[in-house]
Amino acid sequence: IKHPLYKYEGFWFHQGFWFHSEASFSVEVVMALQEEFVAQPTNVFLATYPKSGTTWLKALAFAIANRTMCKGSNPTHPLLTTNPHYCVPFIETEPFLTNPCYNNDLLATHLPYTLLPKSVISSNCRIVYVCRNPKDVFISFWHFVNKLLSDDMSPEMKLEDAFELFSKGVSPNGSCWDHVIGYRKASIERPDKVLFLSYEEMKKDPKSEVKKLATFLGYPFEEGDGEIEEIIKLCSFKKLREVSKANKDGHKAIPNDAFFRKGEVGDSVNYLTPEMIEVLDKITLEKFNGLDISF
Ligand code: A3P
């Protein structure tokens, strides 16, 4: 295994420098952030398990918080030239924090709730979490890893091997189910602090979910001025992928197009065997029991 994982406080992480020599999303960074990161009360953290819709959430939140720029499909809008990952930095990728980032208090993280920096829990900052059906997360993740491996000239990861690890919770940032549970419980206990959304609801009824997001971020929409529709269009899979294809600079270490594959609900049925579906559905049913999470 080229990049082994290590368990820390119940969740799995890479160690040290792992990907393109970047010390990001590693256990050392998690520990340093826990102790040293100082959250501001005005911060809003966009939290996700990888492949759950992070890029989409970043684009939507950024577009909402900077929405005077969206008027009349402004051709200079940053989302028309830049990958959303440049607009909202991950706290785990320290170099991004030195970017001015349009100064709008938005930050992103893949950290599990229980491993967030202490100041995020204790301060008045807020968190938006997007969850996604673990079956689709898994298939999206498997494609993503294989895209990175093929760019790195490394052999492909077999679906069966990836499945064994994922279903046991051995993935970067730990078990997908435990990740969701941490934020879901926090959203039930502190709804004013944590907004819990799902990829599936966002696909089904984007207008209602974007409205919810805007209100939570403190930028509620007026009815009927077409602004929500403009933001949904600007942040659509089709539009963001088009921009990412035209922009060759790429995310720091990951090619732009790796973040846009199909953008659909339920694509996992095209890859998983009936037995794999049964295993993942069973885990989901047991783990999410009583938490009012449905896909
Ligand atoms: P698929 O691999 O199923 O297509 P993340 O942003 O957390 O890395 O998640 C990536 C997943 O979100 C990919 O799923 C990607 O295609 C999808 N995605 C990216 N942008 C999207 C958008 N604007 N709308 C819907 N899905 C999007």
Automatic annotation (TrEMBL):
<dbReference type="GO" id="GO:0005737">
    <property type="term" value="C:cytoplasm"/>
</dbReference>
<dbReference type="InterPro" id="IPR027417">
    <property type="entry name" value="P-loop_NTPase"/>
</dbReference>
<dbReference type="GO" id="GO:0051923">
    <property type="term" value="P:sulfation"/>
</dbReference>
<dbReference type="GO" id="GO:0008146">
    <property type="term" value="F:sulfotransferase activity"/>
</dbReference>
<keyword id="KW-0808">Transferase</keyword>
<dbReference type="GO" id="GO:0016787">
    <property type="term" value="F:hydrolase activity"/>
</dbReference>
<protein>
    <recommendedName>
        <fullName>Sulfotransferase</fullName>
        <ecNumber>2.8.2.-</ecNumber>
    </recommendedName>
</protein>
<dbReference type="InterPro" id="IPR000863">
    <property type="entry name" value="Sulfotransferase_dom"/>
</dbReference>
<dbReference type="Pfam" id="PF00685">
    <property type="entry name" value="Sulfotransfer_1"/>
</dbReference>
<feature type="domain" description="Sulfotransferase">
    <location>
        <begin position="41"/>
        <end position="290"/>
    </location>
</feature>
<keyword id="KW-0378">Hydrolase</keyword>
<comment type="similarity">
    <text>Belongs to the sulfotransferase 1 family.</text>
</comment>
